[in-house]
Design goal:
The protein has 5 helices and 4 strands; from the N terminus they run H-H-E-H-H-E-E-H-E. A 4-stranded mixed β-sheet has the order 1-4-2-3. 30% of the residues lie in helices and 21% in strands. The protein is an alpha+beta fold and 127 residues long.
Length: 127
């Protein structure tokens, strides 16, 4: 799966989005295939904010404003089981509100991990 399969070019180039700041400047990122994996509901509290220290759930509980809480409530009411979050290791780069909704519902999430490329575009295909 490629980032362009789940995010628009506008989302990938939006400097206001956290993900933008974790992508290389080269255009190759659009051509890299990444694997996806499931994160069980019990493991969600271990996922971190982009600072690499603060758990997403803790940050939301401590700092979310009313608008963010309303957004999570909407996501809980209409939970999108096909939504894919973008992570880099344990750091959530895209999908924090969906993650909080999944946690509150006790649901697992699917993530695309930027630390787990399946194939770099400049490598020969495997057997």
């Amino acid at each position: 799966m490629k980032l362009t399969d789940i995010l628009s070019p506008e989302e990938l180039s939006d400097e206001d989005e956290t993900l933008f700041h974790f992508l290389p400047e080269e255009d190759e990122i659009a051509e890299i295939d990444f694997g996806t994996r499931e994160i069980e509901a019990a493991d969600i509290p271990q996922l971190l904010m982009p600072d690499g220290v603060t758990p997403v759930i803790e940050a939301f509980d401590d700092f979310a404003e009313a608008e963010q809480r309303d957004l999570v409530a909407c996501k809980m009411a209409d939970f999108d089981e096909d939504r894919i979050l973008v992570v880099k290791g344990m750091i959530v780069l895209d999908g924090q509100h969906h993650l909080v909704a999944a946690h509150r519902l006790g649901r697992e999430v699917t993530v695309l991990d930027l630390d787990a490329p399946l194939r770099w575009p400049w490598c020969a295909p495997g057997p």
